[in-house]
Write a structure and sequence with these properties.
Blueprint lengths: L5 E3 L29 E3 L43 H29 L4 E3 L13 E5 L2 E6 L2 E6 L6 E10 L3 E9 L8 E5 L6 E6 L4 E6 L2 E7 L6 E11 L5 E9 L10 E5 L6 E8 L6 E10 L2
Antiparallel strand pairs: 1-2, 3-17, 4-7, 5-6, 6-17, 7-16, 8-13, 8-17, 9-10, 9-16, 10-11, 11-12, 13-14, 14-15
Length: about 300
C-alpha cells in the first residue's frame, strides 16, 4: 500500500480513544481497527482524528433540561418590571402621558388661534378666488364695481352654494359681513354667513318670506321677522357665546347699510351641545338668478 493513499475501512463495532463530555468525539484509527467510512492513513500509521459516531454506543433517552430558578444557577434575579402588577403600572403611566400630551396639544391649538380676521378683498386680484377661500360649491370670483372689490357668487346655476374663508376659530366667535342681493319679480335670493365650517351655525336672510333664520345642519333652529330692500347692501352679524358648562347662546341681527347697527339682537336660540369650531362661511341661494355679493368680512373670538 502506498503511503498517503485512501483505503476503505470495513464496518465494525470497535472504536478507540473515544473522547467524552464536551470535547469533540475523536477516534483513533489504525490498521486492523475498523470504522465506518473511509480514513486517510499517512505514513507509518498515525492517530487520525475523525468525527464519526461509534456504532457500539449505547442508545439513551433524550432528557429535557429541568427548570431551575436563576438563584440556583447563580444568575441574578429577573429584572424588575416583568410581573403582572408592574405591567399594569407601566400601562397606566403610558395612558397618563398620552392624556397629558393630548391636553398640551389642545392648549397649543387654542393659543395659536387668531385674535381677529378681516377681509375686504381690496388686495385680492380680480378673477378666481385666492388661496385663503375654499369654495364648497358654486361659482365664486373676485369682482370689482364702482371702485369696490368683493366676492361674488354667480346667479347661474341656481342652487345652494357656499365658501369657507380665513383661519379656523373656536366655537365662540363673532362674525359680521355685508351682503348684496336683488330680486327678479317674485323670485328672491337667500343668503347668509356662518361659523364652524360647513356644519356650524348659520345666519340666513330669506327676503321672500320676510324672515331671519338661524340654521344648523340644514335645519332651521329659530326664526324672526326681518325686512329687506332689493338691490342694496345688508349687514348680517352672527354671535356664538358660551354660558355655563352646557349652554351656548346663538344670536343674530340684520340691518341695512344706510342704517346704524341696532343695539338689540334680532334673533336668539340656545343649545346644550358645543358648537363646532372652524372657518367662517358665506352662503347664497340665487333663486332670482342674479349674483350675490359678499364684502367687509370681520371675525373675532368672543372673550
Amino acid at each position: 500500500m502506498k503511503i498517503g493513499t485512501s483505503i476503505p475501512v470495513p464496518l465494525s463495532t470497535r472504536c478507540a480513544s473515544i473522547a467524552h463530555h464536551s470535547r469533540p468525539r475523536y477516534a483513533r484509527a489504525e490498521l486492523g481497527h475498523s470504522l465506518v467510512g473511509q480514513a486517510f492513513l499517512p505514513a507509518g500509521g498515525a492517530d487520525i482524528p475523525v468525527r464519526l459516531p461509534c456504532t457500539h454506543r449505547r442508545e439513551s433517552s433524550i432528557r429535557m433540561p429541568e427548570y431551575r430558578h436563576p438563584r440556583q444557577t447563580g444568575m441574578s434575579a429577573p429584572p424588575k418590571g416583568v410581573g403582572c402588577h408592574e405591567s399594569v403600572r407601566r400601562g397606566r403611566q403610558a395612558i397618563i402621558r398620552l392624556a397629558f400630551l393630548f391636553v398640551s396639544l389642545l392648549t397649543l391649538a387654542a393659543a395659536s388661534r387668531p385674535d381677529h380676521y378681516s377681509n375686504d378683498f381690496e388686495t385680492a386680484k380680480i378673477g378666481p378666488v385666492p388661496d385663503d377661500i375654499m369654495v364648497l360649491d358654486g361659482t365664486f370670483a373676485i369682482v370689482s364695481a364702482d371702485g369696490n372689490k368683493y366676492l361674488e357668487l354667480a346667479g347661474d346655476p341656481v342652487g345652494s352654494f357656499g365658501a369657507l374663508l380665513g383661519p379656523a376659530f373656536g366655537p365662540v366667535v363673532d362674525v359680521k359681513a355685508r351682503v348684496w342681493g336683488a330680486a327678479a319679480g317674485k323670485r328672491f335670493p337667500e343668503f347668509g354667513i356662518g361659523a364652524g365650517d360647513a356644519g356650524g351655525f348659520k345666519l340666513f336672510l330669506a327676503p321672500g318670506r320676510h324672515l331671519l333664520e338661524i340654521r344648523s345642519d340644514d335645519q332651521t333652529q329659530a326664526t324672526a321677522p326681518a325686512e329687506w330692500k332689493s338691490g342694496t347692501w345688508t349687514w348680517l352679524r352672527l354671535r356664538i357665546e358660551q354660558h355655563g358648562a352646557a349652554k351656548w347662546v346663538i344670536r343674530g341681527k340684520v340691518w341695512s347699510q344706510d342704517q346704524k347697527e341696532p343695539e338689540d339682537w334680532t334673533i336668539t336660540t340656545e343649545t346644550a351641545s358645543a358648537p363646532p369650531g372652524g372657518k367662517v362661511s358665506f352662503w347664497g341661494e340665487a333663486f332670482s338668478e342674479k349674483p350675490i355679493r359678499f364684502d367687509d368680512l370681520s371675525v373675532s373670538p368672543v372673550k
